[in-house]
């Protein structure tokens, strides 16, 4: 039983699990933000569509003379979900694009620093180059 708990402890404190937990918490908070954005966009869409609530749209068939619908296909909820998905995908894309631009800037700065470090030879390399040049001069004088 001790081995089981030791394995569980190792699994639970591993970096990937903690990162995933943080991601889930942030994702939950981000979901609330996206829901607010969706509601704002739907309000604007409502202005142009005379305040039609997409989630209530349905194709309804009635039998002749009947008061109750014979068949109802609620496609509005599907349209609402597709619109929410598109807004969510756009929001995630924009956030990732911003994060990637920050990441790219850091990589460019790191690459510039590495290039600058490579451009200047180390003390050992400078000494070896001097020795090489001296050997070439001595070989040219001796020939």
Overall description:
The longest helix has 45 residues, at 75-119. A hairpin with a 6-residue loop joins strand 1 and strand 2. This protein has helices at residues 2-12, 15-48, 75-119, 123-142, and strands at 59-62, 69-73. It has four helices and two strands. The N and C termini lie far apart (82 Å). Helix 2 (15-48) packs across helix 3 (75-119). It has a two-stranded antiparallel sheet with strand order 1-2. It has 143 residues and is mainly α. The mean pLDDT is 81.
Features:
143 residues; mainly alpha; two-stranded antiparallel ribbon; 4 helices; 6% strand
Count of DSSP H/I helices: 4
Strand-residue proportion: 5-15%
* Basic shape: elongated
Share of helix among residues? over 70%
Number of strands: 2
Can you summarize the main beta sheet?
Answer: 2 strands, antiparallel
Would you tell me the overall average pLDDT?
81
* Spatial sequence of strands, sheet with the most strands: 1-2
Q: From the helix content, strand content and strand pairing, which structural class follows?
A: mainly alpha
Low-confidence runs: none
* SSE pattern: HHEEHH
User: How far is the N terminus from the C terminus?
Assistant: 82 Å
Radius of gyration: 33 Å
């Amino acid at each position: 039983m001790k081995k089981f708990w030791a394995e569980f402890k190792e699994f639970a404190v591993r970096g990937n699990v903690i990162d995933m937990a943080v991601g889930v918490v942030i994702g939950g908070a981000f979901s609330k933000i996206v829901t607010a954005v969706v509601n704002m966009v739907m309000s604007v869409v409502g202005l142009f569509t005379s305040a039609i609530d997409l989630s209530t749209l349905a194709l309804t068939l009635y039998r002749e003379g009947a008061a109750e619908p014979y068949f109802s296909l609620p496609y509005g909820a599907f349209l609402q979900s597709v619109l929410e998905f598109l807004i969510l995908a756009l929001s995630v894309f924009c956030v990732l694009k911003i994060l990637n631009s920050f990441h790219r800037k850091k990589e460019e700065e790191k690459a510039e620093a590495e290039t600058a470090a490579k451009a200047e030879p180390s003390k050992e390399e400078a000494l070896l180059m001097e020795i090489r040049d001296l050997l070439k001069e001595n070989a040219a004088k001796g020939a």
